[in-house]
Predict the 3D structure of the following.
Amino acid sequence: MQTTSCDLCNADDSVTLYAGDAWRQSVPNGLALVRCRQCGLMYMNPRPGPAEIGSYYADSYTPYKQAIEDEHGRLMRWARRRKLIARRRIIERFSGLRSGRILDVGCATGLFLHEMALAGWQTAGIEPNASAAHYGRSRFGLDVFEGMIEQAPYRPGSFDVVTFWDVLEHTFSPSETLSRSAELLRPGGLLTINVPNWDSIERQWFGPHWIGLDPPRHLYVFTRDTLTELLYRAGFRPLAWICFMPSFFSFVISLERWLNSAAPRWAAPVSRFLCFPGMRLPFEPAFAMVNRLQRGSVIAVFARKESTSRA
């Protein structure tokens, strides 16, 4: 475990929000989520160090998904394909491009990049998990650098778009990661970041059991204000904030974690019932309305690279 100061303002002045057994799940001893008293950034402190964090990303980690074609259920194949198409279309909408060069940071097994490649984009990915990176290279023939963005061997200004799908909260220094992203983007390039939404209804309902916290993998929790300030300092201008990703399964995970604390014998049966194929469909209108109100479990910010920064 290592201690750290605030990544936004460098202050060492924080108040603890959750610690110890508040999560009612297996977390490292001493782990705590704190809020900086000076700027409001929330982060884990203390937290696992770079040498230890990899042990919390098993090859079975949920984002390391197999190819859609290998999915057994037709309905699940349709839902997963729909999700990837939604990501591609929103990138095309905010970038104004139908093709270009895109970098996906934390690309996992490469499903999103594969979708972009099929649509004619030139793709590259960064993924620290060796097994996931190998899958992307071997299954889809993708260019995937195994490691972190700070060490990736790409030329400055070589990408039109850089994406972080549920990744920035995992980084050890979001400020450094965003600065490196600005270096790799061309002037006017698009940055897309999808992160847990602190203003979500799920966070208010489930508190420490909300999947958006996910200790110890999520090292940071952003409000709109703190992420906006990080973006400005790295040289980005936010364009829009949109909840467009489905939140049903994140809701199920949060509910299961809450039930594990409040009524353990109901946790697994309820989760299995809600994950039965097709169960999500009756709930989709409600989740769509929550997203429209920007209260979904995850939110995406789209930002343009500017010529100067406020750092």
In short: The longest strand covers residues 185-196.
